[in-house]
Amino acid sequence: MRKLQVNVDIVGPKQDIAVLRVEGFIDSDTSRNVSKILEEVIGGDKSKIVFNLEKTEYISSAGWGIFMGEVRSVREKGGDLKLAGMMPEVEEVFKMLEFFNVLTAYESAEAAIQAFK
C-alpha cells in the first residue's frame, strides 16, 4: 500500500479557508481517506477549499472523482475547490482529462488562497 498523508490548515483573515496538504499517492486505496477528510472539512462549515498538491505524486481516477464530485456542493455553499502546486505528472493528467473546464489550478497554495479574497 502506498502512503498518504493529509494535513488540514484553516487560514485566511476570517479563518474560512481550508488548505488540505496532500502528500503521497491518491489511488483507489487512499482516496477513501481523502474523501473522509474532505467530508469532515465541508461538514465543519468550510466551503473554501484549497488542495495543496505540491507533494502529491499520483492521482488515480478515484482521486480525481473526489474533486469532481465535491466541487458542486462547495459551490452551492458559496465556496469553491481549488487545486494548487501540481507536480508535472499530475498536471499532465489534469490537462489531458480537461478538468480545467471545471476546476481552477494555481501555481501555489498561496495564489489559490489569494484568489478567494
Topology:
Blueprint: E1 4-11, E2 17-26, H1 31-43, E3 48-59, H2 61-76, E4 80-84, H3 88-96, E5 104-106, H4 109-115
Helix pairs in contact: 1-2
Could you explain how this protein is built, in words?
The protein is an alpha/beta fold and 117 residues long. The protein has a single domain, classed as 2-Layer Sandwich (Transcription Regulator spoIIAA), CATH 3.30.750.24. The chain contains four helices and five strands, in the order ββαβαβαβα. Helix 2 links the parallel strand 3 (48-59) and strand 4. The model has no long low-confidence stretch (mean pLDDT 95).
Summarize this structure briefly.
With 117 residues, this protein is of the alpha/beta class.
Strand order of the largest sheet: 1-2-3-4-5
List low-confidence stretches.
none
Q: Give the integer mean of the pLDDT values.
A: 95
Distance between the termini: 39 Å
How large, in whole angstroms, is the Cα Rg? 13 Å
Count of β-strands: 5
Instruction: Count the domains.
Output: 1
Q: What top-tier CATH class fits best? A: Alpha Beta
Quickly count the helices.
4
Sketch the topology as an H/E string, one letter per element: EEHEHEHEH
Report the sheet with the most strands, covering strand number, pairing sense and barrel closure.
Answer: 5 strands, mixed
| Class inferred from helices and paired strands | alpha/beta
Per DSSP, what share of the residues sits in E-state strands of 2 or more residues? Answer: 25-35%
Going by CATH, the homologous superfamily would be STAS domain
Oligomer: single chain
Q: What would you say the CATH architecture is?
A: 2-Layer Sandwich
Binned, the helix content reads: 25-40%
